[in-house]
Amino acid sequence: MLEEKEEREGELVQVxxxxxxxxxxxxxxxxxHEMFLTTVNVNRPGLLLAGFADYFGESRVQVMGNAEYYxxxxxxxxxxxxxxxxxxxxxxxxxxxxxxxxxxEEMLEISKKYNVPLFKSNKLTSQLVNDxxxxxNRKLALSTAVHxxxxxxxxxxxxxxxxxxxxxxxxxMELIHRGHRLIADDNVVAKRIQDEIxxxxxxxxxxxxxxxGVGIIDVRSMFGVGSVLKEKSIDLVIELQVWRxxxxxxxxxxxxxxEEILGVKIPKLTMPVMPGRNLAIVVExxxxxxxxxxxxxxxxxxxxSNVHFGED
Length: 312
Prior knowledge:
Mean pLDDT: 88
Shape: elongated
Number of helices: 10
Number of strands: 17
Distance between the termini: 43 Å
Largest sheet: 8 strands, mixed
Strand order of the largest sheet: 14-11-10-8-9-15-17-16
Strand content: 25-35%
Helix content: 25-40%
């Protein structure tokens, strides 16, 4: 059974953090620590500058590129001051100028007047907007903590779950030894980004694993940088269970089962654990089979098709 902790919204994003992580340069203003972003959307204020103030997203990061710049350049100083004053007095979190556009004198004056930080970036406007939206999507995404091990196997993100002592970490270690990559051990942070669940590790335990009888190991130091991955979509859930003779396990794969994480259904397999069974190889086969399904090939459907064709 998948063990999840309480779901929560992503943390509020400080403007200062966004600026540091997206490589934007401060031109003027001070970054207050209580200045937060709560939406993933980015706004181009061209319509507001032109006089249309309805539906303006004042809680969003405001990005100004060549279109806004040349429009303001065509205005007189008095008109430009008035239009910029209309923008900055809306309590916007910040303004970012793309393509290293230099701010007008009026912009610097009004930025200081309303204490709105002003930044610039050397990125193209479209690239800057995409980078900020991607960053905010990840930071503000709904998230939950899942007990398990997340590992990339042949391009498939496999979340191995099960009760403590079932051999999750040992199975993952064997997979790493076979050339696959670790994302998170024990505590997997799952975030919903659009219709995909992305798994990662808390920073404090990233690259570390606990192996009973050995202790804590650093996978990256032991196996190299190619043995770890920062994040991966969760494409398959494999639950390890103690084998029981009174349970009929699926032998053909006819019944599709799913695990729901943050409202997204993910294919799930229940894998019985018994002495002598090489779980790492079975997990590897399951991942490769899931990859084939994503490419449109289903072995069960192909077998049934062959059987029906033979009957005819």
